[in-house]
Amino acid sequence: MKLRHIIFMTVAGVAVAAALPAAAQTSAAAPGAAYPARPIRMIVPFPAGGATDILARALSQKLGEKIGQTVVVDNRPGAGGTIGADAASKATPDGYTLLLATSSTHSIGPAINPKIPYNAETDFTPIAYVASSPNVVLVPNSSPARTMQEFIAHARKNPGRLNYASSGNGTIVHLTTEYFKAQSGTFILHIPYRGTALAMPDLISGKLDVLFDSFVTGMPHVKDGKLRALAVTTLKRTALAPDLPTVSEILPGFESVTWFGVYGPKGLNAELTARVNQALNAALADPDVKERFARLGAEPTGGTPQAFAAMVRTDNAKWKKIISERKITTD
Fold first, then answer.
1. What is the C-alpha to C-alpha distance for residues 41 and 257, in angstroms, rounded to an integer?
2. Quick one: average pLDDT of 146-153?
3. Are 133 and 216 in contact (CB under 8 A)?
4. d(Cα 288, Cα 292) in Å, to the nearest integer?
5. What pLDDT does 33 receive?
6. 155: phi then psi, degrees, rounded to nearest 5
7. Distance from the first to the final alpha carbon of the chain
8. What whole-number distance in Å separates Cα of residue 316 and Cα of residue 302?
9. With 80 as the cut, is the pLDDT of residue 18 above it?
10. pLDDT of residue 330
């Protein structure tokens, strides 16, 4: 009996099968069966209900269809994604444990915290780049700047008089704005909040001058007419908002995205890596996945394990440089 559409629940980080016949469990775990012979676990190192979790559930459903087996989402939140990522790194490399990693777990985290319990490059097997989500540059409607060029000019004329919000020290919002300041030659004061949602009332009222927010949480305020969007932080214009220019059109090479990618534990063999990579690419090409990702403000990517690994190395090096030059800490 081949298992394809079994309903699973995640309870306290443990995947529980609903109404799975005992005979099916036995056959799924039978030794020597072709991969995948039993459900695959996808660790999500963030809480249920968040953007990463929602994206994982959309992906896992379609991945299960393409690979011919149920893919169970296992939430292991804590320590900025470190707990879940560490659990995945220590799993048996048999293809039955995957990790949906993000730039927080494999680019920014290792760059800003040398004490994380895993090596982001050597303790995992890269499988596929799944998706990216841009930041959007937001200003209050009262801002004199209506374009990115005008904002940069305004900031240069008023060094130290403008301020920006972040979702906390060492977060991608903080790092992205410091990266922008370094590239644009501007001096804008940092005001950290416990999440950008808490900063929104102050931005809307004009107490804050700019926020490099995630596309998902920022654009609804633009659509409601409460804020003005100046640009996105992808290298090329995004299909999510094709009329918005990019920061890189003014500051060549500027890019800051939250990426999502799938890893296996260290030692996953090439055959299994290729099998999962093929199924992931097929899932990401599915129109339903594209539409569901777009609703989350994410664009499917896909590609080879080698291209994914190269992207992460480049991203990590960029943030490590910014963190060092701008003397950024999590304190």
1. 26
2. 98
3. yes
4. 6
5. 57
6. -70, -40
7. 54
8. 19
9. no
10. 86
* Strand 124-140 versus strand 163-166 pairing type: unpaired
- Distance from C-alpha of 180 to C-alpha of 224, rounded to nearest angstrom: 26
Tokens for 203, please give them. 């931005």
Could you tell me if 127 and 284 are in contact, meaning their C-beta atoms sit under 8 angstroms apart?
Answer: no
**Helices then strands, each counted (H, E), the chain:** 12, 12
Distance separating alpha carbons of residues 323 and 317, to the nearest angstrom: 10
Distance CA 196, CA 164 (A): 11
Token pair of 194 as six digits: 């416990």
Name the band, by pLDDT with cuts 50, 70 and 90, for residue 31.
Answer: very low
Per DSSP, the residues of 128-180 read EEEEEEEEEEEEETT-S-SSHHHHHHHHHHSTTT-EEEESSTTSHHHHHHHHH
DSSP, res 104: I
Q: Are strands 257-265 and 97-102 parallel, antiparallel or unpaired?
A: antiparallel
Residues 44, 76 contacting (CB under 8 angstroms): yes
Structure tokens at 87: 């659990």
Q: What letter would DSSP give residue 103? A: H
Amino acid of residue 196: T
297: left (phi over 0), alpha (psi -120 to 50) or beta: left
**Three-state secondary structure readout of 224-292:** CCCEEEEEECCCCCCCCCCCCCEHHHCCCCCCCEEEEEEEEECCCCHHHHHHHHHHHHHHHCCHHHHHH
221 vs 17, higher pLDDT: 221
206 vs 200: CA distance, rounded Å: 10
Task: Check residue 130 and give left, alpha or beta (phi > 0: left; psi -120 to 50: alpha).
Answer: alpha
CA dihedral 17, 20, 23, 28 (to 10 degrees): -50
Return the SS3 of 69: coil
